[in-house]
C-alpha cells in the first residue's frame, strides 16, 4: 500500500469508516482468551530485526517492567529503525502504554535493557532520556497549561536547554513550521480547539529536536475532523524530518494504517509482529482487534 493510499485510509477511518460487516461481537473475555493463544509462538528476534531493516535505532531486549511490585511486561522485545513508525495494539491491560513508559523511564525495570543508537539507556531518568538520548514523550492526557499562552507552553518544552535564548530559537523554528500556532502565539492555550491543543503538545515535544517520539493515544478525545490532521502531522515528522515514532493508538485500524510496523501485545508479552499493512489483512488480527 503506497503512502497516498494509507493517507486515504486514515481519513476514512477518522470519519468512522469500516472494512466489511461485523458478524458477531466478541466479549472482552473472549478477546483476551483467544488473544492469549497468540503468545504461544511469539515473533523471533530475527523477524523483529528484519522489520527494523536490520538497523534498529531503538532496541528493547527481554524487558521486565511494571509499577511498584506489579510486573506488567515480561521478556518484552522491540526493534525500530531510524525514520520508522511502530504502532502497539492489543486488548486493554496488555501493557501497551507501559512499553512507552518504560522506554521513557516511568516504570520500575527489573530486567532486560533498552538501547538507543547502540547506547544503553535503560536506567536514565526521563530528563536524561530527553536531553541526552533524544527521546521525547507525548502524553495521552490533555497536558497543556491552559492559562499560559501558546508561546509560554512551547518555551516549557525547552526547560532542559542551557539558556533561554536557545529555547526561544527552538520555539521560533517550530512556529515557523506551524503557522496556525504562530498566528495564536500570544493567546491563552485554553482557547485552542482540540486539534490545535494536540498540535501544541506535539510541537512542545519538538522543541528539544528529539530523534524519537513516544506518542500515547494521539487521537484520544479528538473530534473526527481533527484526527486526520494529527496523523498527517505525525506522517510529515516521520517522512520529512526522519523522526522515529512509537505509538499506542486506541483505534487499532487507524494506527496500523499509519505505521510501518505493528506489534500485538497480550498480557505483557509480544504475541505478533509484522508490517502494518500485513496485520491489517490478517484475519485473526481483524477478528480480535479491528472489529471484524
What can be said about this structure in brief?
The protein is of the alpha/beta class and 292 residues long. The chain has helices spanning 3-14, 28-36, 45-51, 96-104, 126-132, 150-156, 164-177, 179-182, 194-206, 224-241, 252-258, 276-281, 283-289; strands spanning 56-67, 70-81, 85-89, 108-116, 119-120, 135-138, 212-216, 244-248, 261-266, 269-275.
What's the mean pLDDT score? 88
Query: Which structural category do the helix and sheet elements fall into?
Result: alpha/beta
What does the main sheet amount to? 6 strands, mixed
Number of domains: 1
CATH topology name: Rossmann fold
The Cα radius of gyration reads 19 Å
CATH architecture: 3-Layer(aba) Sandwich
Q: What's the overall geometry? A: globular
- Beta-strand proportion: 15-25%
The CA-CA distance between the termini, in Å, is: 20 Å
User: Can you tell me the residue ranges where pLDDT is under 50 for at least 5 consecutive residues?
Assistant: 6-24
What's the CATH H-level superfamily name? P-loop containing nucleotide triphosphate hydrolases
Number of E-state strands: 10
How would you characterize this protein structure?
There is one protein chain. With 292 residues, this protein is of the alpha/beta class. The chain has a single domain (3-20, 41-289), classed as Rossmann fold. Helices cover 41% and strands 23% of the residues. The chain is built from 13 helices and ten strands. It has a six-stranded mixed beta sheet with strand order 6-7-8-3-9-10, with helices on both faces. The protein has a four-stranded antiparallel beta sheet with strand order 2-1-4-5. Helix 6 (150-156) packs parallel to helix 9 (194-206) and helix 9 packs parallel to helix 10 (224-241). Mean pLDDT is 88; it is low at 6-24.
